[in-house]
Amino acid sequence: MTIDATRNLTPVLGRYFERTWSHGKGHRLFDSDGKAYLDFANGIAVTALGHVHPRVTAAIHAQVDRLIGPINAMGFAAPVSDLAAALAATFPAPLDSVMFLNSGSETIDGALKLARRVTGRPGIIAFRGGFHGRTLGATSVTTSNLNYRAGYEPLLPGVYFAPYPVAYPEFGGNEEAASADSLAVLQSLLSSLVSPTAVGAVLIEPVMGEGGYVPAPASFMRALRALCDEHGILLIADEVQSGYGRTGKMWAFEHSGIVPDVVCVAKAIANGLPLSAIVSSRQLQERWGRGAHGSTFGGNPVACAAGLAVLETIRDEGLIANAAARGAELVAGLGSVAAEDDRIGDIRGLGLMVGVAFTRDPATGEPDGMLPDRLMAACADAGLLILTCGRQHEVMRWIPPLDVNAAEIAEAVEIFGETLAAMPRA
């Protein structure tokens, strides 16, 4: 009996494709007809080690036979405590305490609660174009798409937005000019709209994700850190998509040489199982207070066992260095495609978090919000899964697995280039 896949599933959930997926193996995803696709989408940066990774899968199977259900309200379990220690070890001091939750949205809500309670200040500053999740708190600081906010007002009070330092096309690719402009607007906000003494947190994606795959300039991140230090404001880094070696460093904030007060972690943490974490100093979490926040399912022992295997694999296989090296190859390959097609206006990103921005007019950089969606569908037909992002869907985002090899990068770039070349101009 054939069952209509859409009959009982909600129509609310957005999907990039209408295909039915059968299984995954390594870096390939297979549809119900058995066709293989090179998966450079990875559930939006979740299956960072590919599908059915042997080390992760073995850890899951072993833990399922021991303990599945949540136990954190009852005490401790080795996978949970061990992952907390291993995860904390990837961070610089003083970030040494971990609270496990289930999703990226939950970490944002928790981090905002922490900031308000610890500082006693209600104000939150976020950045235009940012995406932080779908829960009410996370929605309140999200502006990457109006549809994520429309109809949910009133959202959290005390939230203010500053411009993210987007260098292209507004500043012709000049990161320092974009950084200076954004900082000037932020300072104006703090002098005319909300006093810095009323602001508990500044929240930023070190690399903007859904908003267009834009890295924040290192100078901007350093200036934010200095501003927060000056006024006693907590700096929260949303590393849900950019963390776990994705950018060629374990954490994207490391590129700027700063240390946030709070880091939100999710997506790649357990290679597909639901798990996330808020990481901060122990002193901050002690000030937050016992029982101030919690989660029934956060830190499930099976997900934590998978998380340990993920960290061990990243370490043992040198995958952070691989992300940097393969990312450089990807950017070079995409640059060759761009040299033959002026519809590509910008290639940007860090490591294996790369955005290709399309333009209607190379002279002005006017975004093309139509071509990327058509190109995404055509690439899928050709056997390559990549996704769009950006406020107008003008950016093709590349998020290959961290253990991708050079041959797979070359294969993907070839499919992309040939597919783009075959796309008619408007």
How much of the sequence is in beta strands? 15-25%
Tally of DSSP helical segments: 12
Radius of gyration: 21 Å
* Mean pLDDT level: 96
Structural category = alpha/beta
Largest sheet: 7 strands, mixed
Outline, from the CA principal axes? globular
- Order of strands across the biggest sheet? 4-12-11-10-7-5-6
Q: How far apart, in Å, are the first and last alpha carbons?
A: 43 Å
Please mark out the parts with pLDDT under 50 across 5 or more consecutive residues, or reply none: none
Helix-strand pattern: EEEHHHEHEHEHEEEHEEEHHHEEEHEEEH
Tell me roughly what share of residues is in helical segments: 25-40%
Topology, number of strands:
18
Question: What keywords describe this structure?
Answer:
426 residues, alpha/beta, 12 helices, 18 strands, 35% helix, 19% strand, globular
Protein model, in words:
With about 425 residues, the protein is an alpha/beta fold. The protein has twelve helices and 18 strands. α4 crosses α8, α6 packs parallel to α7 (about 220-230) and α10 runs parallel beside α12 (about 405-420). The termini are far apart.
Q: What topology does this entry show?
A:
Blueprint lengths: L20 E5 L2 E4 L4 E4 L2 H4 L8 H11 L13 H11 L8 E5 L2 H16 L3 E6 L7 H5 L18 E5 L11 H18 L6 E6 L2 E2 L5 E2 L2 H14 L2 E5 L23 E4 L10 E5 L1 H7 L12 H16 L2 H21 L4 E7 L2 E9 L4 E2 L3 H11 L2 E2 L1 E3 L5 E4 L7 H16 L5
Helix pairs in contact: 2-9, 3-9, 4-8, 6-7, 10-12
